[in-house]
Amino acid sequence: MKALIIGAAGFVGGYLIRELSSAGWEVHATCLPNEEIKEECHIHRLDIMKKDEISQILGETVPDVVYHLAAQSSVSVSWKRPQLTAEINVVGTINVLEALREAEKKDTRVLLIGSGEEYGYIREGACPLSETEPLNPGNIYAATKACQGMLGEIYARAYKMDIIMVRAFNHSGPRQSEIFVISDFCKQIAEIEKGIREPVISVGNLSAKRDFTDVRDVVRAYRLLGEKGKSGTVYNIGRGRAVDIRFILDTALSFAKCGIEVRQDPDRMRASDIPLIEPDVSRILADTGWRAEISMEQTIEDTLNFWREKLMAYGLSLGNSN
Known about the structure:
Blueprint: E1 2-6, H1 11-22, E2 26-31, E3 42-45, H2 51-61, E4 65-68, H3 75-80, H4 82-103, E5 109-115, H5 140-159, E6 162-168, E7 170-172, H6 181-194, E8 200-203, E9 209-214, H7 215-228, E10 234-237, E11 242-244, H8 245-254, E12 261-264, H9 282-288, H10 296-321
């Protein structure tokens, strides 16, 4: 199997490269000229806003599966930069789909990576959410991902393309940006332990309930969908059990090596927050046998240890430079 991962310099890309490579796939991956991919694979420079560049790379690589990861993936950033979010997530996706359509490789499978946020304002009693649940996005990021999924369904029907739409719920793990909640909490704790932050952790809304899956489980799901998923189908990817953000905080604090005060920060509250998002993941289990295996406690502990090691390495590098 040969894969092309579009937008592989981000958090998930590195894990997906390793997952596919360890399974014996030949992996090609793209990133912007100013980005870096550290994992071993065939690297290509690409801006998805330039369709000709996509077409050229498709012609050079001739992949069996294309994983479209390139996205502006932060809900908070989408509120601040809605136009950028729409350009990357919608126009960029059209460029990818058009390049694939024009390549006339009907047997190339495409995975469009969407989000559980697409379900948005959920009707009472709808959770766990099946893939047939109507979408009602509650934020700008979610709206662009819902549009991406609809475009995928249109291209699959109209042009008989092999496209799978994925709705990945929250995933986390070591090396994730601190703009996401688990990594944010873990970084703050590591900084407090290091003595470079006062012993106070700043938090937003702790009552929202979300489904969290380890990124290492998520990329395994992506590989299995590339191998076994059904064309034209939408798949939820998640643990299948939501927890409130307070559980994430309490678990992270249980691993802390010192006492920490919790303080709510109004700046961390979102303009619109969905109370509960929880998926039904029976479809991916039935079609691929996938289910989440790594515990949330393990994900949180591994993420905290990542930040501890990063701060230690940073301190050593400063010491060496003096």
